[in-house]
Give the backbone structure.
Amino acid sequence: KDTKQQWFKDAKFGLFIHWGLYSILAGEYNGKKTDRIAEWIMNHLDIPVSEYEKLAGQFNPVNFNAEEIVKKAKSWGMKYIVFTSKHHEGFAMYDSKCSDYNVVKATPYKKDILRQLKDACDKYDMKLGLYYSQAQDWHDPDGLMYLKDNSHKDYQHYLDTKVKPQLTEILTEYGDIALIWFDTPMGTTPEQSKSLVDLVKSLQPDCIVSGRIGNELGEYMTTGDNFIPRLPYEGDWELPATLNDTWGFNKDDHNWKNPDDIIRLLLKVTSRGGNYLLNIGPDATGHVPDRSIAILDEVGKYVQDNADS
Ligand code: JFZ
């Protein structure tokens, strides 16, 4: 019997962390605001790679405190954290040997965010999964970009020279990784998806692969924001959700959800066998928005008061 995924079935509640260079723009570039999710600003406002990559030179999140975040997640009753090791922007939040476009080599901060987070997770016995944007990469010339012409690109070349080497790094240099949260597969072929699954499994057999690997090769279904599958649903599933209307930090998004509504949804999700993965988006200094903490403190209090274990 396959029990490697038991922890996921039991988890119920997790913390998503969206963090990258987009947190510097915080929803605004050259006086223009994005009305969409803030981590997509490069795409939505058509910011050229040569301009966007300069943001790395400003990234200095001195307020980032991995232990604080992990301790908070623990206090909220969460059982796992999923962190954006590389989002669509293409920037690695860890010390990558195969792309200098990363937090250690390209920023004044120079420290490995993933390393700090993993150390803190290990210390407090928290599972860490990694979001990795396998298809979209707006920095690599051969990475895909949603709603743009990708026909001239050598996608396979990008998979071979960036995705596979980077997946190998995050799965060999940071200890146990609970899951890889792939996303937006776009035109990835079944063979290509399979080759990524095989790579993950060859390096860490117990690492779970998310549904957004594409081509129905994932080991659980991750739904759209606020979408709950109809019963009966047999497989494992997870609902990722934001606390306002963005994943990455947006200074102008104050449309925060009500803690009571979040608690209601948590009950609905868990009663149907799913996991609720709630997001925070730290700002460019590494600070987690106060409102996010306040909401989760309230939700967490409910969870702790009603914990069954
Ligand atoms: C994707 C990303 O593009 C986004 O930036 C964020 O990381 C989010 C968690 O995942 O966005 C999606 C992808 C698929 C759906 C919704 C949002 N979906 O299937 O409903």
Summary: The mean pLDDT is 96. The longest helix spans residues 155-172.
